[in-house]
Amino acid sequence: MAPVLRPRRNGRWRTAPYAFGIGAAGANGRSRTAPYAFDIGAAEANENNNIYPHNQSHPGTAADWLALVYRFQPKTISLFPEPVGFVDHILHRVWLSVSPEFHNYTTVTNFVKYAKVELANEKAVLGLMTPWFFNIKQTRKRAEETGEEFYECWQRRCFRAGHVFLLSRTRKKPGSRKFLHRLVIFKPGYPTYPTASEPLERRAEQTRWIDHAISTIKQTFELESTWLGGSAVHHIPANPARGMAADSVEVSAEFIEEIMIQPELFPDEVCQLLDRRFQLMDRPKLKMYTPPSP
Q1: 55-110 confidence digits (pLDDT tens)
Q2: Can you spell out the DSSP letters for 104-155?
Q3: How many Cα atoms sit within 13 Å of 48 on the Cβ side?
Q4: Which of 1, 168, 270, 294 could tie 136 with a disulfide, CB 3.0–4.6 Å?
Q5: How many other CB atoms sit within 10 Å of the CB of residue 212?
């Protein structure tokens, strides 16, 4: 179930009430087996010793997790309370025509609209991006080969790629009342998260998706700089019982949780970005993006 956005009197959005629980904290205040702040209580999470949504989670799992984290957001940092799967509404509508389950995802366009409201009062906005780089034709063919229903095949075999977008105000533009902004894109991969990196055959599509997202953000916000890569300050390895390392969606959720619990860890200065292994993107002119065929 996706969070229900409702406007507050002061212009901020809020979600409908959700039940939540607080587990026992580990020695450092956080543990994958005993969640510190957020416990979605999902059977899926319990069975896999996993407290974060992952790259094969049901679409509602990420939405529910974000709805809980949203309740704990600090005063100066706002969290977009829906997972982003598409850049714009065009491709989103096509996938919705195949299965209504995709209504749990939203778009970068909606993230931008939310950020425009929030950045009037807050210093930064965070958003969880979980796109996938498989088209409908590929998924249907794979479903026929495996004998699965389309949606079941998509959930199990169309792995989502986790990213976090951090959009923040930096300074006023010289000679203007308008603010300049910084976009930081947490993209798990080499060298910090080698097992969470997108496979080689899908990296070109991932780059095109990110470029399209950046160009969409630039239509509303003037970006002073854009950074890519990065790492969390404290990475908690996945429980060995799972038999696998954390994927990019889990690592991205962990990155968000860390900032929600300790907002002082938000990378706000260039030295912090460099220390966290973010790299400055040198892309002054983005090529025209052509969306993949459904």
Answers
A1: 999 989 999 999 999 888 888 899 999 999 999 999 999 999 999 999 999 999 99
A2: G-EEHHHHHHHHHHHTTT-SEEEEEE--B---HHHHHHHHHHHT--HHHHHH
A3: 17
A4: 294
A5: 20
Nearest to 128 by CA among 211, 213, 235: 213
pLDDT digits (tens, 9 = 90+) for 205-262: 999 999 999 999 999 999 999 999 999 998 877 767 767 889 999 999 999 999 999 9
Helices vs. strands in the chain: H and E counts, helices first: 9, 10
What dihedral angle (degrees, nearest 10) is formed by the CA atoms of 212, 218, 224, 230? Answer: -30
Residue 51 CA to residue 39 CA, distance in Å, equals 7
Q: What DSSP character marks residue 241?
A: G
According to DSSP H, which parts of 50-88 are helical? 59-70
Contact 259, 126 (CB under 8 A): yes
Tell me 84's DSSP state: E
A 10 A CB-CB count for 150 gives 15
CA 222 to chain centre: 21
List CB contacts of 232: < 8 A, sequence separation 6 or more.
251, 254, 255, 258
Distances (CA, A) of 17 to 14, 41, 65, 165: 9, 15, 13, 25
Decide: helix, strand or coil at residue 179.
strand
Residue among 1, 31, 23 at smallest CA distance from 254: 31
HEC per residue, 242-278:
HCCCCCHHHHHHHHHHHHHHCHHHCCCCHHHHHHCCE
Where residue 235 falls (left for φ over 0; alpha for ψ -120 to 50; beta otherwise) is beta
